[in-house]
Amino acid sequence: MPVRLTDSEGNINYLVPAPFINISKSYQKTGDGEIIGTTYSITLSGKLLADRGSPKKDGSFAATEGAAGLQDLDSSGSVNDEPEHLWYTSLQNKQKALSRLFSKKNEGSYLEVDNEATGGEDGGFKAFVKFESLDLPGHNPGNPYISDYSVSLTADYLLGPDGTATHDEDDWERLGKWLVSSASESWSIAEGQNFVYDRHDIQSRTGGTEKGDLLQQRKTYEVSRNISATGKSKFDRSTAKGDGLETTDYNQKYAKNGRAWQQARGYVYDIIQYGGRFLFGDEAIGGADTEYTGATPTGDSSALSADPDDIHLFAMNLPVPNNTTDAKDRYKAYNYKRLQNVDPKGGTFSVTETWTLAPVGSSTLATETIDFSINEDPSTGLPSISVNGAIVGVVDNADEIGVGNSNNPDRSITRKEDVTENYRSETAAGATKSKYENALAHYHAISPFIYTTAKSIITDLNEYGQLTLNPIPRSKTVSQQVGTGTITYSMSFDCGRRYITPYVKAETFDISDTYPGRVAAQHTVLGRRLGPVLQDIGTQTAWQRTLNISVTVDTRREKICVDNKNQLLWHIGDTTTCTAQAGTNSWINNPNYIDFYEEIMTVGKEPIKGGQTGLSRARPSYVNIQQNALSKLVDAFDPYTYREGSLGGTSPSKNVRKSYSDPPSESWNPETGQYSYSVTWTYEINDPWQFATTDYLGGANDDSMYAPYPGLEI
Fold first, then answer.
1. Is the previous residue joined to 161 through a cis bond, with omega within 30 degrees of 0?
2. Cys-Cys with 437: which of 18, 396, 400, 433 at CB 3.0–4.6 Å?
3. CA distance 272 to 410
4. Residue-wise pLDDT tens digits, 590-604
5. Rounded-to-integer distance, Cα 136 and Cα 440, Å
6. What is the pLDDT of residues 602-620, one digit of tens each?
């Protein structure tokens, strides 16, 4: 049974006498017992003869089967009188020849074992072999003429003999499969940190009282899948030459795409699929790519007979496509990512896929977190509520296209960048947008109703149920992380009144009253150790009241958003967001707007009537609607408003008889929009406040006291 190898240079090398051959076939299996590869272990056990066989005495090999006769070791012309010491030399040369033949240079040699009964190409078997070991045991001192050897080889498949019945059924390459020695696939599911919130009259949800009310919180899930394989290198079977060293360096040659890690990659790419396929009922996990249409699993062991391919059933009660008819309750995969890990020397290739599962019925592609905190001001006793939220955009890039499909944008090697997660997407209208754009769209959708949400939350606590929340935020902060598609925001609302002055960002006012004091004359007396002599002169000081008003307006924006109570919604700065609450808000021209460059720097402007520029005319006391409100506020505290007879009735008691104002003062800062007004009144009322009044006006204003306290005199 002739045995020969074809080396990397195409030379045929016979082993004579033919070694004994032992073949062992082993199977590579995954953890579930599936066979994914085979390995043939081939052992050649032979003997080297000093004066005959192949390799020859000089280390060369016979290229034909019949060229292995007796050899003249000493070149004497006779093969019968060879010196014994040349036996050792010949055997050493033959051992070196074996070592040279079974070397990296000839890795992948074509091993042929012919059947003597048929011979030639029609008999025996063949294999492209990998070298595992060469064993040249110690020489037997009693037999210097013969030396043993053993060669361990492996092959991934056997070729021949010709004929359908004798083909190797585990010739994976002939079957169009990849050569791998191990593989694994694992899944993990965890609840996500973010949620999807249903809001009344947003996302087509109903059930609340006001638009924007929080209705329901829906979980998101994070799903990951890891597929890994260890490949086996593949030789070029189109030629009998061994795939030894590359010509340029010491690297090993293999067939095209035949390195071990490339074979592992091919195996992974053949089975990897993504999109919504991992939800239950997708038999692509273990068979045909068809969606399960049977009964919904019940959640116990009986479900195994309903859908044996549901590998997620007992994980976390994962939402699935066909457990509801309401699209808003169905979950879909977003944020598909695929990361690979390659170990070229280890021959391994793995892919980790991740998805975010979120309700498919969301009007905007985003998840979010939201929390609330309530704080009471110790000086006023009034609470304020802070709303803190984070919006994370998602992208709908988890399609149903196979990884190897050139139409898959995540697969294309010609893409400029990660097209589905750009800062600004380059897609056509209506196509997939970036995470940031989707987060931005969601922020615009909910921002007009954050007040509604805060109002609903604070009234959940009984102690604040009777308080009114001011719809104008006390503070607002927005942070944008465009790279991650995240928008964080914080708004704080006070429990307090609406502003009296229209279109203002802030408003405060206060009064201070100075009550009359009794007037006493002071007479200095020499030597009086008690000090001056005090003499009541029978009168009192005047009544006084001071009013301070301070408001802040927006001088920077040409257009503003106001509600139906003329409250400036300064936290809303665009018409779309402003008018999202139809019939409530209005997008109007800002009467306090100042174009600073136009007002100051433009040359040749016509003189303005009254000598005032827009910088002055933008102040609240010049804007009619604001001036009217300020006037009413001043009138509400002007003592003359309560003059005799102004309150009706027949009694003039506790009414103001006279009132005079000091010069009012007004300040205006066009840069910051801060405006203030201050006025002081001195007045007189029908009440000698520091004296008993039983003898005054017939006792109509009887205080019944000589030491008065603050009261409701006007």
1. yes
2. 433
3. 13
4. 999 988 777 766 545
5. 74
6. 545 554 444 446 788 899 9
Q: Which of 395, 366, 351 is nearest to 224 (CA)?
A: 351
Q: How far apart are CA 516 and CA 542, in angstroms?
A: 5
Q: Are 137 and 146 in contact (CB under 8 A)?
A: no
Task: Report whether 355 contacts 223 (CB < 8 A).
Answer: yes
pTM above 0.85, yes or no: no
**H/E stretch holding 442:** helix 435-446
- What is the full DSSP assignment across 404-465? T-TT-TTT-TT-SS-TTS-SS--PPTTS---HHHHHHHHHHHHGGGHHHHHHHHHTTSGGGT
How far is Cα 448 from Cα 454, in angstroms, rounded to an integer?
12
DSSP 298-342: -SSTTHHHH-TT-TTTTTS----TTS-S-GGG-EEEEEEEEEEEE
**Please, are residues 519 and 535 in contact by the beta-carbon 8 Å criterion?**
no
- The pLDDT-based confidence of 123 (bands split at 50, 70, 90) is low
- Domain definitions of the chain by residue range: 3-166, 181-192+221-360, 504-511+544-555+592-699
Q: Which amino acid is at 651?
A: S
Place of tokens 């030597």: 527
Cα(446)–Cα(385) distance, rounded to whole angstroms? 17
- The phi, psi pair for 675, rounded to 5°, reads -130, 140
Question: Per-residue pLDDT tens for 337-355?
Answer: 888 899 999 999 999 988 8
**Using a CB cutoff of 8 Å and minimum separation of 24, what contacts does 429-435 make?**
432/395, 432/396, 432/397, 433/365, 433/395, 434/393, 434/395, 434/485, 435/335, 435/392, 435/393, 435/394, 435/395, 435/484, 435/485
The fold of 3-166 is: Elongation Factor Tu (Ef-tu); domain 3 (2.40.30)
Radius of gyration of the chain (CA): 48
SS3 label, residue 347: coil
